[in-house]
Amino acid sequence: MATKSKRGSIRIDRELCKGCYLCESVCPLGLISVSDTLNQKGYYPVHYSEEDIPIEGHQCKACALCAIVCPDIVIEVYRG
Length: 80
Ligand code: SF4
Ligand code: SF4
Description:
With 80 residues, the protein is of the alpha+beta class. The chain has helices at 22-26, 65-69; strands at 8-12, 32-34, 46-48, 75-79.
């Protein structure tokens, strides 16, 4: 039986990110990683990895866990 899978994507405002890495720790698919360049506030912001290295079966499901856990409302989730 085919299962219905949700597809999604996220957008991270790297200049608002304070580098707490809560979002990185909650993504069940490991799609969020730490950038190697500082933002204007002096933090290493997170980065949405799927944009660079799409991995089979590791596609954002729009579960929104990352956006919910972010204390600074830095992440937007898009469905579809
Ligand atoms: S919405 Fe869910 S699957 Fe997509 S990046 Fe955030 S935590 Fe990961
Ligand atoms: S939870 Fe928010 S502030 Fe913390 S690292 Fe993720 S995007 Fe940045």
